[in-house]
Design brief:
mainly beta; 11-stranded antiparallel beta sheet; 11 strands
């Protein structure tokens, strides 16, 4: 497939997870991706996160639209990332620091928005494999928010006929973080208490 090198790991996962091709495959559209996001009220998954230096961390992901997300790196990790519906927090318990920014100003806004409208900021990236859908989302009016490149596979049982396999987030400093997913479960019950945290600064 013709993807840029930083997306290759996530794209490879999408290819492995893709179902057998149907006799006729329709070209993917941004509308189909919006339908998937709109039909996904919650999602849980295992994730592996890899930074630009090849360092990896694994954990569990919980997501609840609009705006709630939790990357749990496990009991032995001294950090946590949580979105409470309005802001995204990165918590470093080792140095007792907390960083935060508006979810609407992060690349993950494309997945967490209550009313996804990707037509202005996103486009389908051509793929040689009709089972794989790659979407590049970037707001040209606000480039400081970064870029999100999403990888889906076509799966009839998933919301909107797509299953999210992972993404690559690129921030304004061109730092890249790739996230691969597995064991995805859609529209399961997740309590709001999942998106709270202990403040490391207290």
């Amino acid at each position: 497939m013709k993807f840029t090198s930083f997306l290759a790991p996530v794209a490879a996962v999408a290819m492995v997870a893709a179902p057998a091709p149907a006799a006729v495959q329709q070209a993917p559209t941004i509308d189909q991706v919006e339908r998937h996001i709109s039909a996904t009220s919650t999602m849980t998954a295992n994730f592996t996160q890899t930074d630009g230096k090849g360092r990896s961390l694994s954990g569990t992901l919980s997501m609840k639209r609009p705006g709630k997300v939790r990357f749990d790196y496990g009991k032995n990790a001294n950090m946590l990332m949580v979105g409470d519906g309005k802001r995204l927090y990165f918590l470093d318990y080792e140095v007792k620091q907390k960083s935060s920014w508006k979810i609407s100003e992060s690349p993950l806004a494309a997945l967490l928005d209550n009313n996804p409208d990707l037509s202005r900021i996103a486009r389908i990236v051509p793929s040689d494999d009709s089972r794989v859908v790659i979407v590049r989302a970037r707001d040209s009016r606000r480039p400081e928010f970064g870029t999100l490149i999403l990888a889906f596979t076509k799966r009839a049982s998933a919301p909107g006929g797509l299953q999210l396999e992972g993404w690559t987030a690129i921030d304004a400093q061109n730092k890249r973080t790739a996230v691969r997913l597995d064991n995805q479960r859609y529209n399961v019950g997740i309590p709001d208490s999942k998106f709270t945290f202990v403040d490391p600064e207290k």
